[in-house]
Amino acid sequence: MSLSAWVCWSLIAVYDSTLSPVGGALLSRGSVRGVDAVGLDPAGAGRTQSVALQYRHDIRSDDGGSGRIGVFGVVPVGAFSLDLGHEWFDVDGARFRRRQVGLTAELFEAMSLGASFSALSSKHLELSGHVWSVGLLTEPASWLSLSLGVDGLNRPALLGATREPAYVFGAAVRPFYGEP
């Protein structure tokens, strides 16, 4: 991780209307672009110039091996980008998968609009469902990103309750030459 990326993480501001944590995913809203944004910020995923693939994992041995593993990709085609992701989660013994597909359109050189559809599946029915998210990302300067989004636009029924949409705002400052 570059020094600029580390400083960017330390300067992120996020607002989540539900005031509920979602495993740290909101901390990346507005601060990541391209394949790094798949699964986190629908509009950020389209901010790439080339095909990209990524493998992520976060396994906690001190927590009984719970965590997640995922494979993600972005394919830009003109002013649009298609993103795909597949993650396997094991949280407190409950296992589930999330498959995602998203589409991002570059509205202007420094602004993109994205939407994503996630399908959650598990043998535990309360961990299964579908989630729609939308986002708008703008980079008015090379060192500044602003992101607005609505996660759970379709009011998904998860964990035995209907989830209200989360209205999310993120801002990131990258003080060293606009590096992500």
Q: Write the H/E string, N to C.
A: HEEEEEEEEEEE
Binned strand content: over 45%
Biggest β-sheet description: 9 strands, antiparallel
Q: Structural class of the secondary elements?
A: mainly beta
Task: Supply the number of helical segments.
Answer: 1
Strand elements, count: 11
Strands of the widest sheet, in order across it, are 1-11-8-7-6-5-4-3-2
Oligomeric nature of the chains: single chain
The level of helicity is under 10%
What global shape is seen? globular
The low-confidence runs, each spanning 5 or more residues with pLDDT under 50, are: 1-27
Question: What does this entry look like structurally?
Answer:
With 180 residues, the chain is mostly beta strands. The chain is built from 1 helix and 11 strands. The chain has one helix spanning 3-10; strands at 13-16, 52-60, 66-77, 80-91, 94-108, 111-121, 129-141, 144-151, 157-158, 161-162, 166-173. A hairpin with a 2-residue loop joins strand 7 (129-141) and strand 8 (144-151).
Provide a short characterization of the protein structure.
Helices cover 4% and strands 53% of the residues. The protein is mostly beta strands and 180 residues long.
SSE blueprint:
Layout: H1 3-10, E1 13-16, E2 52-60, E3 66-77, E4 80-91, E5 94-108, E6 111-121, E7 129-141, E8 144-151, E9 157-158, E10 161-162, E11 166-173
Antiparallel strand pairs: 1-11, 2-3, 3-4, 4-5, 5-6, 6-7, 7-8, 8-11, 9-10
Key features of this structure:
globular, mainly beta, disordered N terminus, 11 strands, nine-stranded antiparallel sheet
